Amino acid sequence: MGQLLYILFSTVCLQAVAMARPRVDLPPVFGNVSHTRQKTAGDRAEGLMGKIRGRADRAAFPGANSTMHKSPALSPTWLRNKVVVIVIVEEPPFIIKRGEDGKEEFEGFCIDLITELAKEVDFEFHLYTVADGKYGNQDADGNWNGLVKDLMENKADLALAPLTISSDRERAIDFTKPFMEYGTGLLIKKPPSEGRYLFAFLMPFQIVVWICILVALVCVGFMLYVTSRIRYMLRVGEPFDNDRAFTLRNSIWFAYWSLVKRGGEPAPRSLPIRILAGFWWLFALIVVSTYTANLTAFLTVKRLSSPIASLEDLAKQTEIAYGLEKDVFLYNFFKEQDGTGSVFERMWHSMSADPNNFATSLTEGIEKVRDGNYVFMDDEPILEYLVANDENCELMLVGKPFLYRGYGIATQRDGHLLDKLSVQILKMQESGRIGMLRDRWWPKEGCVSDHSPAAKDAVALGIDNVLGVFYVLLGGAGLSFITAAAEIIYHRCCRPKLPKEKQEEEPANRMPQTVSEDTEEIRVTHEMLKFLRCIENGSLKIVARNNQDGFALQQPNCVLSDTKL
Q1: 501 located within any domain
Q2: What is the CATH number of the domain that holds 133?
């Protein structure tokens, strides 16, 4: 009975305090005048009565969880009638301050996010900027500053910013589910682009690939020659003059001209040579197409020679200074790594050796990067936005992000909006709306970072990238030799034997076909020279006869001398 009277008395006192408190009707909050609400006597009284009511609730319901308990003052009707006060920190593109004629307005990723959440949860909100511009850091005495301090002092209901969720902050305030996962990026000044390279046309392939292509060309030419010679030496198949022209020199020349897509002479006629030539043409098509595509990338992409390509490279070297902003989560993280023996400990010792390595603000860190010979570490989403909107396009991100964490919306301890906002954030992630907001505020155009797809340097293709086409060529060569062997076996074993008279005539018929074209040309030229010499000496005469034979040639004593013409 005493507990019930105590609860009734507490409720009456709370309602009296609420009625005595002046009502301030603030406009809906999309980005308006910055307003810092001062704590009044009514605030302190309401906070005290809230604690009394909480103890009374736990006394009446010993098994209930105070965090999940819903008191009448936290009903949806109360939420719709209350303006939620949100403290922010300006940080493009999350929160961007726009103002004209003394009126402050805000926009950005976080503003769009809280606007969506306000529609779903059904509340209005008011924004104001934190006085010291800090996110929230704890000093040696355990006192907090920035956003965390305002929440702990009940100056604001929510803190909206790219605020990292950490264990230290979780002990003082509460966080919703993270609305964005991110890593730490490395920001440097763009190095000068590489100068002209005399043999740039060789860069699409590694040297090993060029050697393999040259070896393949010679081997294919030699196989063409061997295949044609074996067929005719063993008198296999139907004789073709074109195949007889595949001398070693002509075969290699044929392979080269096919590779540079200029055709080739003579054209193959027999089946084994056609198979080998066909697979070589396929090989040439793939190689030339790949070379052309990669050469285009080399000629169009600006190549930058960055001395830092990863976090490991940064930690190993000592020529380039690196640092970060003081009194932020990343600063505290590196500081706590002292004594762990990790790469972060070595980096902390290197940074702390010179106080100039640390920046007091993000702007100062960016200026250090612009001055050169300095690497600045910060949250990758913030650095990506700076790189994309850099007017001089002289900044770039290198390496892969590291130390992944999450941003969350901060609330007071056991805040009544915590669960509602967390559920809505998860729904927005599942529906893709948060991804759409990110695409809106992180543009794809403008200057791009080094690890974005548009800025990747063209990479010379190694043997692993083109090994498959060599396997295809090897398979074609094997098929060609198998076909040639099948022809030999067929004509030796399965072809009907010719009569003895035909066998004696066949060598004589085939003999001229085994004479090379060069020998035949010499013989014809020799006969022509002999004929012309006879005309010059006058030993060739045209005699007219009065008979039916008409004219006749007389060639008495027409012999070609041994003297060179």
Answers
A1: no
A2: 3.40.190.10
Nearest alpha carbon to residue 137 among 330, 356, 404? 330
d(CA 31, CA 41) in angstroms, rounded, equals 28
Domain count, the chain: 4
H helices within 122-247, ranges in order?
146-152, 167-170, 207-233, 241-244
- In a 13 Å sphere around the CA of 430, the CA atoms on its Cβ side amount to 7
- Rounded CA separation 86/156 (Å): 5
Q: State yes or no: cis peptide before 266, omega within 30 of 0.
A: yes
Q: Are residues 529 and 388 in the same domain?
A: no
Cβ partners under 8 Å of residue 307, min gap 6: 191, 313, 317, 319, 320
65 and 85 fall within a common domain = yes
- Which residues belong to the annotated binding site? 162, 164, 169, 379
Q: Which amino acid is at 209?
A: V
Own/partner pairs, 328-333, CB within 8 angstroms, 24+ separation: 328/135, 328/137, 329/135, 329/164, 329/166, 329/405, 330/184, 330/377, 330/378, 330/379, 330/403, 331/358, 332/137, 332/168, 333/403
Question: Mind listing the pLDDT tens digit for each residue in 291-337?
Answer: 888 888 776 665 556 778 889 999 998 899 999 999 888 998 999 88
Mark whether 168 and 55 lie in a shared domain: yes
Do residues 21 and 46 make contact, with C-beta atoms less than 8 angstroms apart? yes
Does some domain include residue 498?
no
Q: What is the DSSP string of 252-285?
A: HHHHHHHHTTS--SSPP-SHHHHHHHHHHHHHHH
65-123: pLDDT as tens digits = 333 333 333 444 445 557 899 999 999 999 998 876 567 789 999 999 999 999 999 99
Q: DSSP code of 453?
A: G
Q: Are residues 163 and 50 in the same domain?
A: yes
Distance (Å, rounded) from C-alpha 440 to C-alpha 110?
A: 12
CA distance 125 to 409: 14
- Spatial separation of the C-alpha atoms in residues 51 and 66, rounded to whole Å: 11
Kindly report the pTM of this predicted structure.
Answer: 0.55
**Both structure tokens of 110:** 């976080």
Instruction: Give 364-380 as a DSSP string.
Output: HHHHHHHHSSEEEEEEH
Residue at token pair 């936005």 = 385
Read off the amino acid at residue 108: G
And the tokens for 106?
């805000």
Tell me the binding residues for L-glutamate: 162, 164, 169, 379
Using alpha carbons only, how large is the chain's radius of gyration in Å? 44
- CA–CA separation, 224 vs 251, rounded Å? 6
Please provide residue 537's backbone torsions phi and psi, each rounded to the nearest 5 degrees: -80, -10
Written as six digits, the tokens of 355 are 């106080």
